[in-house]
Amino acid sequence: MTPGRRDGGTAGDNVPVHWSLVVPLKPLALAKSRLSEAAGGAMRPAFALAFAQDTVARALSCRAVRDVVVVTDDPLAAAELNRLGARTVPDSPGAGLNAALAHGAAEARALRPAAAVAALNADLPALRPEELDRVLAVAGQFPRAFLADAAGIGTTFLSAAPGVELRPAFGGHSRHRHSASGAVEIELDGVESVRRDVDTGDDLRAALALGVGPRTAARCAAAPAAWCC
Ligand SMILES: Nc1nc2c(ncn2[C@@H]2O[C@H](COP(=O)(O)OP(=O)(O)OP(=O)(O)O)[C@@H](O)[C@H]2O)c(=O)[nH]1
Ligand SMILES: C=C(OP(=O)(O)O)C(=O)O
Q1: Fold of 19-228
Q2: Whose CA is nearest to atom 29 of ligand 1?
Q3: Of 50, 94, 116, 128, which one has the greatest count of Cβ atoms within 10 A?
Q4: Is the shortest distance between the CB of 155 and ligand 2 below 6 Å?
Q5: Helix, strand or coil for residue 141?
Q6: Mean pLDDT by 10 residues, the chain (229 residues)
Q7: Residue 123's closest CA among 71, 47, 174?
């Protein structure tokens, strides 16, 4: 069997793996700066919020997910994501993405010590729960595992089994860093929605082709046609 392609979603003793997901989110006014060219400054925060809402709502509906912990200092995003059922914590380290993820993982473990934890980007508006469940099922077979982004350069998902440190190394060419750190790369067909992060207008169009969640779809419907099609 090829590493990273095992089936099943159970720990070695056949106990189903339960997950706490950690979702990092920048303050909306700062988020998705690379979308500016396509979406302009004014609507960019609304897109960032819609992406996060669709990501979190669908993550929460996964069978294996027990908690979604969002790390954000944005009050509007925190209120909206709490309403969906996420638990939000402030980005108290204030030291960038990886520090925020390590903090969120510690919070998640304090809440549910026996669960596996995984970092999931907040910019996956096409996320399909059944695809994330397949990723989680494979990730549950390894101490640490990750999924490369659609571009094949970065990472959209990084997991750690109960008791294992997450050691996030996101940013830029993180696929290589996560692999070099010993995390197993998950190589599954048919999980494009989990890999489809949205940084640019082209990414947004690719996500729309997969099918986005309702909040992102509504944002696109309200935007000038050139942004979304
Ligand atoms: N809490 C927190 N989240 C962060 C931080 N930096 C990035 N993120 C989040 O990490 C995820 C991946 O980041 P990016 O894809 O670069 O998103 P972004 O920073 O909004 O996009 P750009 O402004 O275009 O770089 C997104 O969900 C971001 O909101 C940070 O310092 N703190
Ligand atoms: C944060 C990452 O990428 P990007 O900022 O390009 O979405 C990453 O893939 O590690």
Answers
A1: Spore Coat Polysaccharide Biosynthesis Protein SpsA; Chain A (3.90.550)
A2: 25
A3: 116
A4: yes
A5: coil
A6: 47 69 97 78 89 98 96 98 98 98 98 96 98 97 98 98 97 98 98 97 95 96 74
A7: 47
